C-alpha cells in the first residue's frame, strides 16, 4: 500500500467498508428497490450484501479483491480501514459530518460494517464473486439493480473515459437499472466533460442516463448519482414509435 500522497489523492484504490445505511442514503434506496436481485459492484468490504439479504433481497457482491483467501482479505480490510480513517481525519474539512457525527464515529461505523462483511463472507462465500469491470461473469439482465460506489468518477485520475463507458455499459447489460455514486473525483471536483462523454456514449448504445439528487452528502459536493436504464419508447408524429435498440450491458 502506498502512503497518503498529497492533497488530492488517497493513493491506491481503497477497499472500503460502507454500511447498509450509507448505501440506502447514497443510492436513495427504498424498500421496493430491495425486493429483487441486486449486485454491489465493486463490493469491497461493505456490509450491503449481508444486510440486504437479511431484508429479503437476493443480493451479491463482485470485486477483484474477493480472489484473495478470506483470512488475507479480512487482514487487508483492517489495514484499509486504518488508511481510510487516517485520510478522512487528515482531510476533515472536505467532508460533511452530519451523517456520521465526527471522524471517530465514522471510523466505528466502518469497522462495524467490515465486521459484518467478514462474518457474511465466512458463512456465505458464494455471495461474493471475484471479478472486475469491465468484464463480469453474469448473464444479460441477471439483476434488477446494480449499485456502484466510489470507483467510477472517484478515480478519474487513473480510469479514463473509455473505461468509464465500458464499465457502465457492462453494468447496464447485467442490470435492469444501475445507480452510480458519487459523480465527483477524490478532490470533490465535478467532472462535466467526463460525465457528458459517457452519457452520450450510453445514449448511442440505447441506455438512458439521468443525474438525480440523493439525500446524502459526505464528501463535499457529492450530492448526486447517475441512474441508468433502457431508453423508453419514442412517440412519433403518427403515434407510438419503436423502442431504441438496447445496448450491451454486463456486470
UniProtKB/TrEMBL annotation:
InterPro entries: Methyltransf_11, SAM-dependent_MTases_sf. Keywords: Methyltransferase, Transferase. Residues 113-174 form the Methyltransferase type domain. Residues 229-251 are annotated as: Disordered. Residues 234-251 have a biased composition (Low complexity). The keyword Methyltransferase applies. It comes from Geodermatophilus poikilotrophus. Gene3D superfamilies: Vaccinia Virus protein VP39. This is Methyltransferase domain-containing protein. SUPFAM superfamilies: S-adenosyl-L-methionine-dependent methyltransferases. It comes from the Bacteria. GO terms for biological process: methylation. One of its GO terms (molecular function) is S-adenosylmethionine-dependent methyltransferase activity. Pfam families: Methyltransf_11. The keyword Transport does not apply.
Amino acid at each position: 500500500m502506498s502512503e497518503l500522497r498529497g492533497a488530492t489523492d488517497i493513493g491506491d484504490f481503497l477497499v472500503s467498508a460502507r454500511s447498509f445505511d450509507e448505501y440506502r442514503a447514497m443510492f436513495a434506496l427504498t424498500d421496493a428497490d430491495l425486493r429483487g436481485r441486486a449486485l454491489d459492484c465493486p463490493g469491497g468490504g461493505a456490509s450491503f450484501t449481508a444486510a440486504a439479504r437479511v431484508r429479503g433481497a437476493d443480493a451479491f457482491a463482485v470485486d477483484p479483491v474477493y480472489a484473495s483467501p478470506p483470512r488475507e482479505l479480512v487482514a487487508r480490510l483492517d489495514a484499509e480501514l486504518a488508511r481510510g480513517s487516517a485520510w478522512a481525519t487528515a482531510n476533515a474539512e472536505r467532508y460533511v459530518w452530519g451523517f456520521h457525527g465526527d471522524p471517530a464515529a465514522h471510523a466505528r461505523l466502518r469497522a462495524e460494517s467490515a465486521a459484518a462483511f467478514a462474518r457474511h463472507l465466512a458463512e456465505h462465500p458464494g455471495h461474493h464473486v471475484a471479478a472486475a469491470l469491465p468484464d463480469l461473469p453474469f448473464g444479460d439482465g441477471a439483476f434488477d439493480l446494480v449499485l456502484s460506489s466510489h470507483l467510477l468518477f472517484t478515480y478519474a485520475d487513473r480510469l479514463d473515459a473509455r473505461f468509464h463507458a465500458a464499465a457502465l455499459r457492462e453494468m447496464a447489460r447485467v442490470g435492469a437499472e444501475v445507480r452510480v455514486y458519487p459523480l465527483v473525483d477524490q478532490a470533490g471536483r465535478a467532472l462535466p466533460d467526463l460525465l457528458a462523454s459517457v452519457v452520450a456514449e450510453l445514449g448511442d448504445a440505447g441506455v438512458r442516463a439521468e443525474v438525480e439528487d440523493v439525500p446524502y452528502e459526505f464528501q463535499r459536493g457529492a450530492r448526486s448519482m447517475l441512474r441508468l436504464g433502457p431508453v423508453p419508447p419514442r412517440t412519433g408524429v403518427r403515434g407510438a414509435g419503436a423502442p431504441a435498440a438496447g445496448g450491451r450491458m454486463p456486470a
